[in-house]
């Protein structure tokens, strides 16, 4: 959908065919819904991923992220980045910055509602270079080409807002938002995201 939305004004028969495939998928999954748990701890979690230079037209990267309260998926995004990244680390770092802004907003929201929740938020990333840049100031001398606003990642890590943790690429949930997946991998990640089949019939 993220990719198709870019061709609304000048769509072709190829795009229309893809829309039909999406509608077929939606029609075939009427009972699949997001499961919101009432028993999991109130703790913000997030994961981010990036498909480097995946846009075949202008070589921009795709940012994908998801955020959770406990085990419940509450927000997600798949969006083409505004600028072209010269390396995968830069693209992944931009994705980290995006999800950290989302986690910061959710933190403020919970505080405004006087909700007692576990801090800091946990953030998973499968790119070792991006993780090193975020926690090691020595790497910043080698990353001056990364925009200043992306260094919000390091600032928020130091402040304790988020705790960055590595995750194997095979368990990276955000591949759903950034890559074309085989049916088996898609169904596995779909379930891990918290999408479950409802036992309640539809009217």
- Radius of gyration based on Cα positions: 18 Å
CATH third-level topology of the largest domain: Nucleotidyltransferase, domain 5
Strand fraction? 15-25%
SSE-based structural type = alpha/beta
Helix count equals 6
Give the H and E element order. Answer: HEEEEHEHHEHHE
Low-confidence region ranges: none
- Largest β sheet strand count, sense and barrel closure: 5 strands, mixed
Estimate the global geometry from the Cα principal axes.
globular
Main CATH class of the largest domain: Alpha Beta
How is this structure best described in words?
The chain has 203 residues and is α/β, with parallel strands linked by helices. It folds into two domains: 1-30, no CATH class; 34-197, Ribonuclease H-like superfamily/Ribonuclease H (Nucleotidyltransferase, domain 5), CATH 3.30.420. It is built from six helices and seven strands. It has helices at residues 13-27, 88-112, 128-135, 152-159, 175-178, 183-192; strands at 32-34, 43-51, 62-69, 72-80, 118-125, 162-166, 195-197. The chain has a five-stranded mixed β-sheet with strand order 4-3-2-5-6. It has a two-stranded antiparallel sheet with strand order 1-7. Helix 2 packs across helix 3 (128-135). The radius of gyration is 18 Å and the shape is globular. The two termini are 26 Å apart. The model has no long low-confidence stretch (mean pLDDT 83).
């Amino acid at each position: 959908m993220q990719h198709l939305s870019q061709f609304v004004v000048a769509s072709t028969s190829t795009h229309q065919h893809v829309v039909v495939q999406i509608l077929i998928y939606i029609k075939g999954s009427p009972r699949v819904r997001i499961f919101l748990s009432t028993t999991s701890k109130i703790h913000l979690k997030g994961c981010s991923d990036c498909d480097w230079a995946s846009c075949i037209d202008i070589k921009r990267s795709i940012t994908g992220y998801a955020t959770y309260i406990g085990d419940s998926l509450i927000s997600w995004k798949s969006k083409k980045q505004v600028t072209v990244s010269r390396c995968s680390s830069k693209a992944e770092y931009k994705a980290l910055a995006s999800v950290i802004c989302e986690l910061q907003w959710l933190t403020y929201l919970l505080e405004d509602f006087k909700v007692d929740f576990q801090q800091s938020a946990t953030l998973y990333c499968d790119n070792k270079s991006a993780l090193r840049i975020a926690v090691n100031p020595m790497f910043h001398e080698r990353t001056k080409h990364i925009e200043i606003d992306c260094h919000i990642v390091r600032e928020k890590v130091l402040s304790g807002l988020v705790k960055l943790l590595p995750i194997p690429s095979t368990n990276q949930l955000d591949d759903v938002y950034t890559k074309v997946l085989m049916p088996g991998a898609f169904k596995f990640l779909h379930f891990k995201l918290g999408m479950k089949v409802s036992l309640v019939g539809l009217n």
